[in-house]
Amino acid sequence: MRMYWEPLLCEKEGFPVHPQETPTLVRLLLVAGAMCLRGQGHSHCSLCPAEARQFLQKSRDFVSGCYFAESLLQLGFAMKNQSSIENPEAQPIKGFRFSALAAGIKKLGTTRLDLGLITADTPATSAAVTTTNLVFAAPVALTRRRVSKGLLQGVLVNSGNANAYTGPRGLQDAEVLTAAVAKSYGTDPELIVPMSTGVIGNPLPLDRMLPRVPQLVESLDRGAFMDVAHAIMTTDTKPKTVLREAEAGGSRFRMAGMAKGAGMIAPNMATMLSVILADVRVDPGFLKEALTEAVADTFNAATIDGDMSTNDTVIIMAGGHPAAVGLGSDPIAKSVFKSVLRDVCMDLARQIVMDGEGATKVVEVVVKGAPDRGSAVRVARTIAESPLVKTAFHGEDPNWGRIICAAGRAGVAFDPDNADLLIGDVPIVVEGRLVNQDWESAAHKVMLAREFRVSLDLKAGTEEASILTTDMSEEYVSINADYRS
Asked: How many domains does the chain have?
């Protein structure tokens, strides 16, 4: 399984020796040491940072001064102080302010927060990844156009109405709202982008939203991060937030993220709405590259129901204030930034799956031995999105036939008579044959847990991929049957 720290070991820039060109034993030593230094609590790592330092130094000596080992040693210590802060409001991101209020967007008179604003003190380097759905919402169209210039100063968010499939009026409404925000805040409308989520097909209630914009701007506060996280929720049962702190280039920086999503979650984009903020200045080209890479194996590797939204967007803003420290061109500092961003995206993606509509299980579907990574992803996704497989997960039924059947219709060539299938650590099928021992009770016991893993080895190559998914329950049907009411 590819872990979120893997880019640290696969970054060509700055490392004369690529991991694939390094002897296997040395690679294993360096990977293990780097994992220990990261302190991510991996089940196979038990060394403390001091022991890990000694471990890596020995591996460096073993490679006779290999510069790659030395670079990893430096990178490990740059990352060892990365930390997770539970309450983003208690430790706000320098240069950014937040505000949210109730505008009654979905239903007049409600007191639920549904309109929010995030602003930077100064225009911030920005990048975005948006839905690949051909039916995309007006806010997506406007965001794509404005973020292409690499600078933003504000994100206006709303829940209760997606402003999708609303024709020319939808785009005009988004422009009117962002212009009103820009006027009240005192900036260029081209620096403000909209993000909307909710019911598709209805125009935004501008008569309720526009009068609230001045108050929204006046209420901006560095400690209102969680208010905005609540304002973007729809069927979510809880806000999804994360805050990381790390050191790069001799300076510490913070990165915070918020996301919404519990349904219409599928791979091929960011799978939901998310805003990520960092109080460090970076190059626009590098920021786009880092975000695209981070999204690929985090948000794009999660699915709840296989449906892709019209509004999926993830935006990152970096800098935000005149005194923000610059990341510079140091390759190790860049690798640290990429790793932290990937970590933030992975954390948010996992929270989304954990909060999936009606979900009672979180399942990691791992496919190994594929001819190429794209094939591994296709098989994993087909299994993860199969209603028959997902309902079996819900019933805690180790129905291996459904899993093998789903893999077979993914369009990837492999020999079913040579495949291996495990649920947790319990072998079910080995070399295409059902094992003789009592696997069913053991596999059922694994599936009683809130989280478990299904692993399928196709033995058709060397590539692998994993996707997070959920079960499918009666509650999921109930939530979506009543969504518009």
From this structure: 3
Question: Which of residues 29, 55, 80 is at a domain's end?
Answer: 80
Structural domain containing residue 29: 6-80
Q: Are residues 375 and 254 in the same domain?
A: no
**Is 360 tagged catalytic?**
no
In a domain, 110, yes or no: yes
Among 212, 214, 166, which residue's Cα sits nearest to residue 186? 214
In a domain, residue 90? The reply is no
The answer to whether residues 256 and 299 belong to one domain is: yes
3-state SS class at 450: coil
Is residue 410 assigned to a domain? yes
Helix 400-408 to helix 387-394 angle (10° resolution) is 160
Q: Is residue 85 part of a domain?
A: no
Answer for the pair 327, 157: CB distance below 8 angstroms, yes or no.
no
Q: Rounded to whole angstroms, what are the CA distances from 6 to 16, 50, 166, 198?
A: 17, 22, 42, 35
Domain stop point among 326, 354, 382: 354
The catalytic residue among 125, 235, 271, 469 is 271
Residues 127 and 196 in one domain: yes
Q: Check if the beta carbon of residue 443 is closer than 8 Å to that of residue 424.
A: yes
* pLDDT tens sequence for the chain (485 residues): 233 233 333 333 333 333 333 343 344 444 444 444 433 333 333 333 344 444 444 443 433 333 333 334 344 434 444 444 555 555 578 999 999 999 999 888 889 999 999 999 999 999 999 987 888 899 999 999 999 999 999 999 999 999 999 999 999 999 999 999 999 999 999 999 999 998 889 999 999 999 999 999 999 999 999 999 999 998 788 899 999 999 987 889 999 999 997 544 444 333 379 999 999 999 999 999 999 999 987 887 766 444 455 678 999 999 999 889 898 888 999 999 999 999 999 899 888 877 766 678 889 999 999 999 999 999 999 999 899 999 999 999 999 999 999 999 999 999 999 999 999 999 999 999 999 778 999 999 999 998 999 999 999 999 999 888 888 877 766 655 654 55
Comparing C-alpha atoms, which of 473, 88, 155 is closest to residue 314? 155
313 and 385 share one domain: no
